[in-house]
Amino acid sequence: MASDGRAAGPSLGALQELLYDLITAPTGVESGLAARGMASEALSGIIVSDARLSATSRLGVYADMYFFRILDVLRDEFPRVVTRVGDAAFHNLITDYLLAERPAHPSLREVGARLPDYLATHGLAASAPGIASLARLERTHRELFDGPDALPLTMEDLRALAPEDFVALAVRLHPCHALLAHQPAWSTVWERLGAGDFVEPDLNAEVVLVWRQGFAVRHRVVGDDAERVMLARAAMGATLGQLCESFVGVSPSSEAAALAGQAFAVLARWVDDGLLMRA
């Protein structure tokens, strides 16, 4: 009992849990109440009703907006998945996703974090092969856009180094990068899917480097084994000399001078792309 003689209401935590469960109930507020063994009238002591809307109907407005707000956010985050599977199938996918993976973070930024993994087990994976990897590529773009800042090396930095200092300079990759291997080759249709054109991708596998440069997230195919070896070494931290050695080591039978020149060309491209920073 409260100090004024009235029955004490539910605690704030209990009230929050009740409202969240009802708003996210799979088939509506009424079914959520029934699952808890509660009558519709039970909400009248929590939510004010009037002649226009009952307490249950008022909460139902929030329940509808909960789903459609998240659906809109995920449409914006995964536009190419929407183009690939169609709007109706995407709507049904998100319905299933929210039932299976209830949001666990207060920020809408995180609501799609588990969608790529979920898609890999969903029925759409059979009718749209590789769709989970497309979702992962789109999600990676989002995550890297919000990633940490870092000061990249410039060509002016490198030109200022003596030869012995150049090879000894310890570097690593910018923290906002990812290397994704998947099949099919989504890079072949990325722009067209982004423009809303349904088109089938090249069925070959590809390795894609995704990184943020300034305020833009970019990606490109890394088709050369030697560059992939360099990327793996740079991700762990290495000197510029060690990176060149790892490139040359992939093709030891080739002419060392030519390979060294190719390795330097790769490093120059990384610097132009804002991929390298001091370790």
Question: Which percent range describes the beta-strand content?
Answer: 5-15%
**Helix/strand order:** HHHHHHHHHHEEHEEHEHHE
| Major sheet summary line | 3 strands, antiparallel
Helix content: 40-55%
Count of β-strands: 6
Please tell me the overall pLDDT: 89
Distance N to C terminus: 63 Å
Give the overall silhouette: elongated
- Supply Rg: 26 Å
Q: How many domain regions?
A: 2
Would you identify the regions where 5 or more consecutive residues have pLDDT less than 50? none
Name the strands of the widest sheet in spatial order: 5-1-6
Structural class: mainly alpha
Enumerate how many helices there are, as a single number.
Answer: 14
Task: Explain what the structure shows.
It is a single chain. The strands form 2 sheets. The protein has a 3-stranded antiparallel sheet. A 3-stranded antiparallel sheet has the order 2-3-4, with helices on one face. The chain has 14 helices and 6 strands. The protein has helices spanning 12-23, 29-35, 55-77, 79-85, 87-100, 115-121, 124-127, 131-145, 155-159, 163-168, 190-194, 225-236, 240-250, 256-272; strands spanning 170-173, 177-182, 206-213, 216-221, 238-239, 276-278. Helices cover 52% and strands 10% of the residues. The radius of gyration is 26 Å and the shape is elongated.
